[in-house]
Amino acid sequence: MNWGSPEFVLAIIAIATFGGILKTWVRASHGLPDHPDRGRRGRKNAARDTEEVERLKAENARLTDRLEASEDRLAVLERIVTDKSYSLASEIEALREEPARLGSKGNVQ
After folding, report:
1. For 71-94, what is each residue's pLDDT tens digit?
2. Exposure letters 63-84 (e unless 16+ CB within 10 A, then b)
């Protein structure tokens, strides 16, 4: 094999290109950035990322508590609406409103 031949150089270029494409695809499928920070910038970004993770955890906990409270309120409302006394009360109110709508001769005003 001739190490200086154009075929060998093209093969090396093809392998490097395929490797770069494969690496980018794997990073994208895992939700990672294209170019990871290295060196000093990486350390500064790590501190910022840690702060953001903590902020997101706190927001997640707050939203989870709010969702649980909303679920509890929804359960109470469902219990009220499906309660037979609630439907009975609405029927009584409808009967109370009906005479007010009827005129003296039984016509609807």
Report:
1. 999 988 888 777 777 677 777 888
2. eeeeeeeeeeeeeeeeeeeeee
| Residues 44, 51: Cα–Cα separation, whole Å | 11
* H-only helix segments in 1-109: 6-29, 39-82, 84-101
Task: Confirm whether 27 is domain-assigned.
Answer: yes
The three state secondary structure string of 73-101 is: HHHHHHHHHHCHHHHHHHHHHHHHHHHHH
**What is the Cα–Cα distance from 35 to 28, expressed in whole angstroms?**
11
pLDDT tens readout for residues 29-47: 887 777 665 544 555 667 7
SS3 1: coil
Vertex 77 angle, CA 76 and 79, to 5°: 65
Q: What is the per-residue pLDDT for 39?
A: 46
Count: domains in the chain:
1
In a domain, 51, yes or no: no
